[in-house]
Fold:
Amino acid sequence: MSNKEKHWEKTRGLMWTTLAIWFFFGYVVFMFGESINSASFLGYPLAYYMCAQGSLIAFVVLLFWFANKQEAIDEEFGFAEKEDE
Amino acid sequence: MIKGKFIDNLPKIYGIYTGGFLAFIILMAIAEQMGMDAKTIGVCFVAFTVGIYALIGWLSRTIQVDAYYVAGRQVPTVFNGMATAADWMSGASFVAMAGGIYFGGYTYMAFLVGWTGGYILVSSLLAPYLRKFGCYTVPDFIGTRYGGSLARFCAVVVLVLASFTYVTAQINATGTIASRALGIPFELGVWVGLISILLCSMLGGMRAVTWTQVAQYIVLIVAYLLPVFWMSNKNGFGFFPHLMLGDEVGRIADLEAQFGLIKNSAADIAAAGVPAGLGYISNPHSEVPAGGMAAWKFISLAICMMVGTASLPHILMRYFTTPSVKSARKSVAWSLFFIFLLYSSAPMLATLSKLQLMDPSLATGIIGRSIADVQALEWVQNWSAAQQVFIADFNGDGVLQLNEWFMRGDVVVLATPEVAGLPYVISGLVAAGGMAAAMSTADGLVLAIANALSHDLYFKIIDPKADVAKRLIVARVLLVIIGAAGAYIASMRITSILGAVAWAFDFAMSGLFFPLVLGVWWKRANRAGAIAGMVLGLAAGTAYLIYVGPKFMAQTPWLGIDHLRFGIIGAPVSLIAMVVVSLMTDAPDKATQAMVDEVRIPSGKTILSNK
Structure:
């Protein structure tokens, strides 16, 4: 397998991991909205909290994590861009 | 302003700008104390901020293609994040979202999840690869990846349809705010809004839009957060509302139980003469509605908004302006962070303003009071005169019940500071923020449409030999025409702000999502498949919209998929059509496959190097 193919395989793996986490916070949590709402977090009902803040925070953190992870993959296979200017 | 130096000095320049804006707010507050009237303050706020944007637009004028289309590809990560956040957060986000949560409660908050989660798709599936591609517009990618004018043309059609649906709503919002702040009729306000939008974008294209959007983000975020924090502190609800309003959310649930959530019949509402577009509280604030159907409606709306986000060209093209692929990825993360600052505050604002009105133990509470007392309040009189609030005493007991208080959603953002007894300077600030939000989105959209028409339709299809000067003139003429068309339609007031905004997402996801994603992630995808995906996806989605749309055939939605969610029908049709047709026809040639391989690695030159 060429270097490019290995790089793409890892990139694809990261993409699926990212989408799995996204799917959990974007949909799975809200499929069970009715049952988790009796729990509370910071005094808010849990399902309410998740759509007001919780999932949003998870998305922001996920994006920074993803960007760093992908950079590491690019560097590992020598496909990182040279520093700008 | 020298270019290189300007980029290096960005933090300083925008630091001074922010300081200047805060100083202006303080100056206005002093003027208010000295007796300046509310109307003059509103005019000052809108005129001052729009004047600054116009100045930035003038300073960023350019005659270079690269600067006009992609801001010279040198916008630093964090600033591009701010510009994207302003590009993203529309008049609807700023003015209508808190109101939507106020009336819809948990159910409505599917929009919050949907309008943030889409950025995961943008970053992991699209933005970095499109940046590597080096295109000027989204149809530019489709046209080059799949080859041929027809594919490019289809992408232009989807882009124009989605963005134009969206832009009329934005111009509508600028018109509403301008007319209120400047005290002019709505129809005139729309044209004032349009001129402000063109001042920001016409001379400098993407470069001008980028730097005005950063300035607009700063105004809108200050205008949104300041009242939220102020009200929370003033009412003693907590120093940091986002972490401390748990008890207040619980209190609202108690009050809902006490007052009862009563649904008025349509006949009662009509008989009382409630003005169109006003709502009343009948949905629980934080309670999750029972049943699988309710959960599906929440999730299906979130799916449409997320997938739509990743297909909207005015958002994707913001990531063409970063210096590198790496910075495009980081920039998506920053964008969502800046969006999060406002979105996480919207439910807090809805909670605060709801409790203010509902809680009889607060001085501002109106529910449970005698209607005569409520009607004597100054803010109630002001907003009643504008037909924004309405009282209907259904049971005739002279006491205001929860289901007897009607209000337009926008009032939550626009009037809450007044209700809380904050100085008028805050209301002026909020008007400036709403104007900034609507203008920045309209700028991005008008530019996306005009660029697609000038670059893809005119330059790539009609007249490939056109020189730079001619192309840029065409681009600017189109900008004016599209803006004017949007303003004309907005002035006819066809649909409510949010209906139209959701449609834009559905159109974009029906036609563009799979052709874009598979263009990067599936080498086997070919021209015939992409065209089939765009045409059939868009056709299926549109047909379904006409079938269920309340203003069209108004048939019963299938599985709860109503007119806000028609992308749920369009996108799968697009996927299936694209895969089936691609597999039935020949694989793309070697050169195209090699191009896809190149797109997948960040290093090296961009695929396109058009000048």
Observations:
- Chain B has a mean pLDDT of 86.
